[in-house]
Specification:
Length: 192
């Protein structure tokens, strides 16, 4: 009987030691995981899709260069090829004519694959002695086309023109002027 009681005490002690060992092991790991998770949450992470001082440069088949600069950009999480830009300045350098078109806007949306860019808010385009302002600009490098819309004002040394949409071919400088309502006319003011 004494042997049975000592075996029972030994067995119960063995079970208790295993229980405390397992419990303390898992409890320590749980506490360690909580501390690690807490440290990760407390770290001051910056958003990894924000880029500062952006500069992209590309050339078309005619060797014209397109340069876009921005103070800040954010990569679109749904499409890695799209970057949303802030404080944008772009240059289109036309090699054959040795001219540069300068574009400035508050915001932009740039596609790194096809180089198409949408500029918005306080858009200003300067080339030669011409200036076009508007709220929205859609630029296609592949089509060599600028389409300015909403509150468009085109100014050259002779005239000021107000319209809804101006489409400009960057190579030929051919310009098309549109109004949304066909009954409305383009407003032209002579400076001479």
């Amino acid at each position: 009987m004494a042997k049975l009681i000592s075996k029972l005490i030994f067995f119960i002690s063995f079970i208790l030691i295993i229980f405390f060992f397992i419990n303390s092991y898992f409890l320590k790991n749980k506490e360690l995981n909580q501390v690690t998770n807490q440290e990760i949450k407390e770290k001051d992470f910056t958003n990894s899709n924000i880029i500062k001082d952006i500069k992209y440069s590309s050339k078309d088949l005619k060797n014209n260069e397109y340069l876009i600069l921005a103070k800040e950009g954010e990569i679109d999480l749904n499409n890695q090829n799209v970057i949303f830009l802030k404080n944008v300045t772009a240059f289109i350098k036309l090699i054959k004519k040795n001219e540069t078109i300068r574009i400035v806007s508050n915001y932009g949306k740039y596609n790194t694959v096809d180089y198409d860019t949408i500029f918005s808010k306080n858009v200003e385009i300067n080339y030669l002695d011409n200036k076009i302002t508007g709220d929205y600009l859609d630029f296609s490098m592949m089509k060599n086309r600028l389409i300015v819309s909403r509150n468009v004002v085109y100014k050259n040394p002779e005239n000021i023109l107000e319209a809804d949409v101006i489409e400009l071919d960057t190579i030929t400088k051919d310009t098309k002027i549109f109004m949304y309502n066909s009954k409305e006319k383009v407003n032209i003011k002579s400076l001479n």
